[in-house]
Amino acid sequence: MTTIEERPVVTPSGIGDSPRRVEDARFLTGQGEYLADVRLPGTRHMAILRSPVAHARISGVDLEPALAMPGVRAAFAGSELAALSRPFSHLLPIPTIKPLEWSVLAVDKVRFVGEPVAVVVADSRYQAEDALEAVVVDYEELDPVVDPEAALDADAPLLYDDWGSNEFLFVPFSSGDVDGAFAGAEHVLKERFTQHRITGLPLEGHGACGRYDSAAGRLLLYASSQQPHNLRTVLADVTGLSEAKIRVIAPDMGGGFGNKQHFMREEALVAIVAMQVPFPVIWVQDRYEALTASVHSRDQIHEVEVAYRGDGRVLALKARIVADLGNPVLYFTSAAPALVTTGLMTGVYDIPNYAYELHCAATNKCPIGAYRGFGQPQAFFTIERVMDLVADQLGMDPVDVRRVNLIPDEPRPFVSPVGFLYDTGSFREQLDSVVDAVGYRELRARQEDQRAAGRYLGIGLASMVEATAPNLHGFAGRFGGFEMAMVSVQPDGRVNVVVGTKSQGQGHETVFAQVASEVLGVALTEIDVRSGDTGVLPYGMGTWGSRSAVMGGGAVIKAAEKIRDQMLDIAAHMLQVHRSEVTVADGVYRAGDATLPFGAVAGAAYLHTFLLPPGTDMGLCAVASYDPGNTSPFPDESGRLNPAATYATASGAAVVEVDPNTGQVFVENALMSHDCGRIINPMIVDGQLQGAFAQAIGALLLEEIVYGDDGQILTSTLLDYLVPAFGNVPRIRALHRETPSALPGGFRGAGEGALIVMTAAIANAVADAVKPLGVRVTQTNLSASRVRRLLRAAGVAVDPVAGVRFQGLNLPAGSS
After folding, report:
1. Statement: residue 485 has pLDDT above 70
2. Is the entire prediction scored with pTM above 0.85?
3. Is domain 144-195+295-405 classified as CATH 3.30.365.10?
4. Do domains 35-142+206-253+259-292 and 413-476+636-816 have the same CATH topology?
C-alpha cells in the first residue's frame, strides 16, 4: 500500500505509469469540440416550450402566433410529432412494474414542471425563445402530488389513470430467518432516514444536433451522450429508421456523471424534427432546463429496523424503502437506482438475515435517474449511520462495532444476502489502515478537549463495496452486456484504437493508449484513441457504472493481443526464427542480436506482402468484444439479484467542525483507502477520487433540489442550487490498495468510490460533532441552513451573526 505522495517516479509508458494526459493538449488550448461547437451548414436553432405547471391536461396548443414571429421556420406540438414517431417505453423486465410509454413531447397531459410541450425552430436561439412566448397552450390544472409517501395513498391524485395507483414498482425480498433473528435479539433499533433530491449537473448540459438526408434516408445526430451506440438503437426505435441509416457522434463532453447515460426524449426530438425540415437543427440545454427538466437523483426514504446483540453484532436488518421517482419517463428507467440501493443495503457487513420492501412512487417532479454512485450512496449512508447509532446505544466505539460486523476475509467470493459475489480483499485491513492513518485515537482525545472549549469536532468513518462494471444482460439483452474495441496498425507503425466507451473527462485517450502500449510493446506517443462515433465501430455499450477500465480495457486487451500475435508471427518470419524467440519492447522486435522496427513489421503487412508468412491475411486490424458473464441484475423468481460485476472497495474518514451559530460545516481532514484492482494510471485515479469527493461535499453540504407543495421547483437557478467551489473542497488523501480482479488486466472500477464512501463518512462526522448538542442526524441534506434547523429543533440557541470564523475559504488541511 502506498499513498499518492509515495508513488515512485517512472518513465511513462504502460500500465501503472502516470504520463501527461494525451487529450489535455487540445482542451487546454481551447481546441476541444463540444456539442455547441458543432456547425453544420445551414443549421437552425430549436427551443422547447416547457410546462409551467406540475399536473394538467392539455386541451389545446396554438402554434400559429409563434409561426408568424420573425425568423421562425417551423413549430410542432406533441400530437403532431407523436403521429410522426414511435413512443418510448422503459426496459425493466420485472413482472410487477407498471407499463409506461411516452412521446417526444407531452400529448394530452403534463406531469411535472419543465415537461416539453411544444418546439419552435428559428434562425437563432433567441428568435426561437421569443417565439415560445407566443405559443398558446390551454391547461386544465389537476392536483399535483409531490410527497412520495402521500403519492402511495389510495386517494392520491393519479399521474397515470390506467395504473390505478402511483406505485410504479413494488419489490419484496427476504433472505435468512429475519423474524427469528428479531425474536431472539437483545436490542432493536428503529430509525427513519431521508435522502434528499440532487442532480449531477455537468458543466455542459445535454444537447443534440441533427441533419437528415432525405434523398439517402440517412440521419446524422451529434449528441452529448455517454452511450452513442445505444442512443442510435433508441433512435431507430423512435424514428423507424434502420440503424444502418443512422450515425451518432458524441463529441468532446463537459461532464456526464450518469446524467448523460440516459436517452433523453429531447435527443430523439431533435432527430424527429430534423426529419421534418430541410436543414440541420440544434438544441443545447440551458441551465434552467438542466435543473428543472433533466435528470435528478437520490430522493429516498428508508425506514429500518435492526436486531443486534450486546457486543454490537448486527443479526438482522429490515428496510422499507420509498423511492421518489418523479415522473419516470426515462428510457433507462428511474427505478433502477433504487434496485441497486436494495442490493447493497447491508454494506460491507456480514448480516445474514435481510429483508426489504421497495416502493417506487411516481410524483409530479422531474424524473429520477443516474448520477455518480447510482443508488449506492443511499445504501451506504443508511448502513453506516446504523453502525454509529448501534455504537451510541451500546456506549461502544464506532470502530469496534464495525470490526465485529465486517465481512470476514474468507471465503472469497463472499455471497451477500441478495446473491452478490464479493471477490475483494480484506475489509478489516482496509478499515484499520484508515483508522491508523487519520490518527483516530489521537483525534478522540483532541475531540474531548475541543468540546470542553465549546468547539464541536466530529469524526466519521464509513466503508463500502461497490459493484463496478455490471453486466446488464437482464435488459432483454440490450444496453449493458459487453464491450467492443478495434485496434489497427497503419503501414507506418502508428496504432489506432477505437473504443465503445465514451469519455466525459476521465482520460480515456490516455488510459486506453497505456493498455494498448503494454500489450503491443510500442510507445504511448505512437497510439491514437478514438471514441464516440458509431460510424467507426460496430457497437459499444458506452460509459457508466465504472465500467470503462474493466469492460473497455478488457476489449482493448483482447483486440491488441490479436494484433500482437499476428505481428509476432510476421516478425518471426522476417527474422527467420521461431516465434518463441521473438520479443517486442520499446517499438522494436528482437531475436538474439537481430532487430526489426515496429514500423517495418507493420509495413510488411500492407506494402511488402511478399515478406508475410504463407497464408497470412494482409493488413493489421482486429475487432474484439469482451463479456465477463451473462447474468441478470434484476430479481429472479426467488427475489435474488445475481449480477456479473467486479467489486471495488473503500474505507474513508472525515474530520469536521460544526459552528453551532451558523450551522456551517468545515471539513478539516479527509482520507480514504481505495482498492480498484490494478491501477492503469495513478494520476488519473487520484483525480477521479478528488472529483468524486468534491461531489460528496456538494451532495451533503450544499446542493438540494426543493419543490413546493404545488409542484413548482424552487431551485431553478445556480443562485438557489449551490454547487461546490474551490473554497469548499479540501484535498482528500488517498491510500491505494491493489487487489487485482480475475478479469483481463486485473482492473476494477475507480470513478465513483469517493462519492459513495465519503458521503457517509462526512455525514457521520457531522452527526458526531453535533451529538453533544442533542442532535440526531438521520438526513443527508446538511447544508448550513438545514443544520441550523436541526439545532433549533434540539433547543440550541442559534446566532448566525456570531459565527464569523467560518465565513472564509475552506482551505485544505495544512493550508494557511
Report:
1. yes
2. yes
3. yes
4. no
